[in-house]
Amino acid sequence: RRCTDIICCVIFIVVILGYIALGVVAWVHGDPRKVIYPTDSYGQFCGQKNTLNKNKTILFYFNILKCASPVVLINLQCPTTQLCVSKCPDRFATYIDVQASYRYRPDQWNYFRQFCKPGFNNPRKSVAQVLRDEDCPSMIIPSRPFLKRCFPDFSTKNGVLTVANQTTFKDGRGKTRNVTDLREAANGINNVLDARSVGMKIFEDYAISWYWILIGLFIAMMLSLLFLVLLRFTAGVLFWIFIFGVIGIIGYGIWHCYWEYDHLKGIPGSDLTVYDIGFQTDFKVYLQLRQTWLAFMIILCGVEVIIILMLIFLRNRIRIAIALLKEGSRAIGYIMSTLFYPIVTFLLIAICISYWAVTAVFLATSGEPVYKVMANQTLCKYANLTCDPETFNTTNVTKLCPGAQCTFAFYGGESLYHKYIFIFQLANAFVFLWLVNFAIALGQCTLAGAFASYYWAYRKPADIPLWPLFSSFGRAIRYHTGSLAFGALILAIVQLIRVILEYLDHKLKGTQNSFTRFLLCCLKCCFWCLEKFLKFINRNAYIMIAIYGKNFCTSAKEAFFLLMRNVVRVAVLDKVTDFLLFLGKILVAGGVGVLAFFFFTRRIPVFAQEVPMLNYYWVPLLTVIIGSYLVAHGFFSVYAMCVDTLFLCFCEDLERNDGSTAKPYFMSASLHRILGKKKLSPKKT
């Protein structure tokens, strides 16, 4: 063997070094506190330790009516003074009323002034000057913290929107306003708060059920391992059990949906439609509707019919695929260490994701504080212009625009580094995609090399080299890093284009240009197909690299034409095998899911007392089902790679050898029988 695609290898190493340098620069300039802590009008963090605001963790808005939407509030661009406070207001009050009563009700003044600018304690100052200089808010309203910011404490009473059971309030400027004005100023806050309530309940469910979730995932892992071990001896029987097990699970689901549908018959309110009740945060409400269970039953019936029809028309091909799986299980039986290689790929991808996320956060928080002129007068020509808070009072802005202030707006900068932060974020995303695809490519090439060493061993298992998995990993790193990086680079470019198209589609979602939407839809579809095709080509190219050690382009070309010459076998064996393995994943996830369902709904009497009290039992249930599927996918992906490698080796074996003594087949006798190949008699010498 020799090193392949050296130029791409050098570029890849240089890019990794540059990526590390980018992370270091972002770490030097970035400050994650800008994400963790809200910032007041003076650019100071709320709740930061060892500062004057260490006990003031919440951001308070002087006049929330000036804020157009929650997005504006979260981006810290609301055109009103923002102040760090220790707690949100819990009552209605106006500055006019508090000032008028401060002499005989000093407690009200002491409570109100904690929401004024630090150090302000002059209730004798005229109301007009106080509001002009924004020393104090004109009003305070009952609020509660959300995202470390004070938002109105909305609630609904008899279908009417209220704040602290009131529908009107004084705005501190001589007007009585309706609570709906607050709702319009903080559009969508009520829904967000409901979502927060649901989020908190979900977090509580995870906190008290995490160990049961881990137990469920451990059971899924053991089931996956058990199935893969049994495949070596009972592949046919086990996979037919898989198939009928899935059919049985779906059949049980159909029966359960019908039982629930029939059980709700005649119960008041059960005949309402989902449209009638609208969106509800308590999902149990939907389970009280007959329509919900009818929809579930129809969907499951459709899935059941599709699976049965596929089994009827593909029954002969399934027999062939099962026989090939037996050969694959025999290969894995000799190289058991391959089952645990997905853990290595998972760790590499986890490192990539962590580094990308940390770098993205530091890049996003690399800006310097930017201050802008905030003027009460709408005609002030200096409004929204940048300013310097240290020299602002010496300028003419305060004279031309009475009451104008130089307040913190957002984080940014005018330096060369800050101008190219967006480019750096794109580079961060691109290198992240490249590294993730490289980690996947390394795993595929390593597994392919290990299984190829099994196939090309003439006497199995005597001729299988020692430690085939580690040897294959060493060869991939030492000789083929450039080739793997080349394949990963092509895939990363296509994926980055897809990400950009998704971003443009999101931005142009509200446009009325039908041609633009149609063009974007076509481009997204084309690049999705291109990505799928490239993944297929790359996977088989990595197998050829592992077998012959050639460069990426040559390996991809040879793999493609080899598969085209055996396109019928590819369709029969490869895809049917993928389908069977997918059914295996479904059975593992479905079996563990059914067990988790009976457990979390207290339907297993032995463990009924052990089940934690949950807000939503579907939270740990869905986590166990999805997690079980991912665990099964990790183990079954090794099996799929084994089958693909053996099949490609078999096709190559058929073309290069004829079964004679000079050119004997390397395939096993069982593989001859699987694909109908007879051993040729040795040539007489």
Automatic annotation (TrEMBL):
This protein's GO CC annotations: plasma membrane
Principal location: membrane
Keywords: Antiport, Cell membrane, Glycoprotein, Membrane, Transmembrane, Transmembrane helix, Transport
Organism listed in the record: Oreocharis arfaki (tit berrypecker)
UniProt catalytic activity: choline(out) + n H(+)(in) = choline(in) + n H(+)(out)
Transmembrane segments: 7-28, 210-230, 237-255, 293-314, 334-358, 431-458, 479-501, 579-600, 621-641
InterPro entries: Choline_transptr-like
Lipid bilayer topology: Multi-pass membrane protein
Function: Choline transporter.
Family of the protein in this entry: Belongs to the CTL (choline transporter-like) family.
Location in or out of the cell: Cell membrane
Cited Pfam families: Choline_transpo (PF04515)
Molecular function GO labels: antiporter activity
Protein name: Choline transporter-like protein
